[in-house]
Each structure stands twice: as C-alpha cells, then as structure tokens.
Write a structure and sequence with these properties.
Elements lengths: L1 H28 L3 H7 L1 H11 L4 H25 L1 H7 L2 H6 L5 H35 L2 H13 L2 H17 L5 H16 L7 H4 L10 H4 L3 H24 L4
Length: about 250
C-alpha cells in the first residue's frame, strides 16, 4: 500500500486541489444562479430537466455536482488502471517476487482508487458548502447538505471503477472499454432528457440512480444497490487477476 500511495500521491493531491478550487468557485456562485435562472430560458429548461422545479440554487448545485462526479469518475478509472501500467512496465514482477501476493497487491490499488475518489469528492464539497453557506449566511446548515449530496455520488463512481477492475482482471486488453463506458454514460446524462430517451435506457447510467439530496432528499436503497454492483464487479476482477497470466 505504501508503494501504491507513493506512486499516486501527487496525482491525488493535484486532483483534490483542483476540485477544491472549483468547489469554492461554484459554491459562491450558486446564490447568483437565481438571477440567471429567471432571465435565461435555456438555463431554466436545462435545470428543470435535470433537477425539477426546486429552488434555483439547489437546482444549480445539483447540476454542478452531477457534472463533477462524472469528472471524478475519470480519476477513479485512472487510479484503478494504474495497476495495468505497473504490469505492462514490468514493475509488478519485482513486487510479486517478494512476499506480496497478487490479491494483496491488487487490493491496495483498488482501495487507493476508492478512498482517493472519496477524498476528491470531499475536496469539492467542503469548500462548495462553505462558500455557499457563507453567501446565504447559513454555513451550519448548507455545508453538511452539500457534503452529503456530493458523497451520494460516490457509489456510482465506484461502479465505474468496478468496471475498470473487472476488465483489467478478466480481459486486460479491453480496459479501454471502461473509458468508452464512461463517455457513453456522460453523453447519456447530457443528452438523455433533451432527446427524450426512454427511462429504461437512462437507467443504464449509475448516476441516474443517485438520489438528488438537495432537491428530493436522501434514499439509502439505490446507494446500497450501487455499492453491491460495484463490489460484484470488483470481486470478479480480483478473482480474474488472481488466476490469469501476467505480462
């Protein structure tokens, strides 16, 4: 785990710093969204499709959280597929020549990706909740609301990471499919409501199942389901890696 952390530390810190900066910017901007909401018909339509007829600030933040959670999924895939880089660059062989087992090595990277994603989301939500709370004079209420709403996206991102783990463990030549899956999900999220795509197709995206905490409240059932799917994909990938040829 120490080696995996050393290899990925700077990347994680850079992502967290970037997300923190954008969180502060969008959190402070959320209050002014009400003016744009009432004067821009296109934005009204977009927020209504994505967030329903709720307060403009909560609708705006919900849209922003969805976008940045999808960006965080890029980090999750990168962190997960660091395993493949270690293997293809022949560094894995030297590690496995020691007392470290395949499964222990892979679990370290999976854990790093899971925890790292949580850190990235927290880095966004804390300054976002703080600056939004300061702008309306209610930090004590808004900071935890934004934090919970942001972290609700974590299981969906874990599903994306789980796809990458499964592909790496079972069919490593096709790990690029995880990037294609994420791109497809993003396009589906962006165009689904505009093109009136059937809900059964929209449900393919794990982000569709994330409760929009700021506008409709929290629900644990879909989050538990997403965690189960993510675990199933990850276990399948780890078992595949345990028994396949390396190199």
């Amino acid at each position: 785990m120490a080696l995996a952390w050393q290899l990925h530390r700077n990347t994680l810190l850079a992502w967290a710093a970037g997300f923190a900066m954008y969180g502060a910017v969008f959190g402070s901007f959320a209050k002014t969204a009400s003016n744009l909401y009432t004067t821009n018909p296109q934005l009204v339509s977009l927020l209504a499709n994505r967030s329903g007829n709720t307060g403009p600030s909560d609708s705006f933040l919900t849209l922003v959280l969805t976008i940045f959670s999808e960006i965080a999924a890029v980090y999750a895939i990168m962190a997960t597929l660091q395993m493949q880089s270690e293997e293809t660059e022949a560094r894995l062989d030297s590690v496995l020549a020691t007392a470290v087992s395949r499964l222990r090595w892979a679990k370290c990277y999976v854990l790093l990706a899971a925890v790292g994603t949580a850190i990235v989301l927290a880095a966004f939500s804390l300054p976002a909740g703080l600056t939004y709370g300061l702008s309306i004079g209610n930090v004590g209420s808004e900071l935890p609301r934004v934090l919970v709403a942001t972290m609700a996206y974590l299981p969906a991102i874990w599903v994306i990471a789980g796809i990458a783990v499964a592909l790496y463990g079972l069919v490593p030549k096709f790990t690029f499919v995880s990037w294609g899956a994420l791109l497809g999900i993003i396009l589906l999220e962006l165009l689904g409501n505009i093109l009136q795509v059937n809900q059964s197709i929209l449900n393919i995206s794990p982000f569709t199942h994330v409760p929009k905490v700021l506008i409709s409240g929290a629900s644990l059932t879909p989050l538990i389901s997403l965690v189960v799917v993510a675990l199933a994909l990850t276990i399948a990938g780890l078992l595949g890696f345990q028994y396949r040829n390396i190199g």
